[in-house]
Amino acid sequence: MEETISLKELAQTLKKRLRLIVLITVAAALISGIISYFVLTPIYQSSTQVLVNQAKTEQQLYNPAEVQTNLQLISTYNVIMKSPAILEKVAQNLDLDLTTEQLSSKITVASEQDSQVVNITVQDEKPGLAADIANETARVFQEDIVKIMSVDNVSILAAAEVGENPSPVKPQPLLNIAIALVVGLMAGIGLAFLLEYLDNTIKTEQDIEKTLGIPVLGGVTTITAAAGRPAKKTPAPKAVRGETIGS
């Protein structure tokens, strides 16, 4: 026999388990907020920009071929900036107790398509240190690229600076709480339907009809005492010669 579930039954299930759904949703949001505000360490971000372009004199004109060459070199430069040859000097100059792998994980080098500007972005727990790493990486790269590739077409366009009240880029507590609310709501609804599916007890006449497949002809109701009158008590059976009457 094929069973169908109506929207009314779905609504009744949600209404019956509403307290459970709300509890799970609130708990998920509360846990997410506690972790975001008190457990996770704030991470700050700072960036510096490097321009890949040969220095021009008044006699030199714009050369499209040279620009195209610079654009092709940017991919190579992005790799060199995070190479041990550069990062070892950065860690040594800033007296950082970090390996090149650890320092590389903090640095992101990227450039827009067909752009000669390269962004060096650093994330760290200390906003000042993030700016120092970004600036030192750009400076060391500018000096060493002349020796590495025998070119002098790199200049620092904008140095990283630390504002008066820097804001962390992560974690984002409000976003985490919003995600936790959605996830908690979905988990609560899913658990409500699962409990309803596993609940095979018979509570109503409709449950009998659904389980046995036969119509209900009648039912036995519970008789309560009339309003304002105490229910009539049934006298206790009397004992005769050690035996209970009616036993």
Question: Characteristics of this structure?
Answer:
247 residues; alpha+beta; four-stranded antiparallel beta sheet; two-stranded antiparallel ribbon; 8 helices; 6 strands; 13% strand; disordered C terminus
* Beta-strand share of residues: 5-15%
Could you state the order of secondary-structure elements as H and E? HHEHHHEEHEHHEE
Cα-atom Rg, whole angstroms?
Answer: 37 Å
Please tell me the overall pLDDT.
83
Cα end-to-end separation: 47 Å
Q: Would you tell me the structural class of the helices and strands?
A: alpha+beta
Largest sheet: 4 strands, antiparallel
Which geometry do the CA atoms define?
Answer: elongated
Unreliable runs, pLDDT <50, ≥5 residues?
A: 239-247
Strand order of the largest sheet: 2-3-1-4
- Counting DSSP E segments of at least 2 residues, the number of strands comes to 6
Q: Number of helix segments?
A: 8
Classify the helix fraction into a percent range.
40-55%
Q: Quick summary of this structure?
A:
This protein is 50% helix and 13% strand.
What would you note in describing this structure?
- This protein is an alpha+beta fold and 247 residues long.
- The chain is built from eight helices and six strands.
- It has helices at 7-16, 18-39, 64-81, 84-93, 100-106, 127-149, 173-198, 205-212; strands at residues 44-52, 107-111, 117-124, 154-158, 239-240, 243-244.
- The strands form two sheets. The chain has a four-stranded antiparallel sheet with strand order 2-3-1-4.
- The longest helix has 26 residues, at 173-198.
- It is elongated and about 100 Å long.
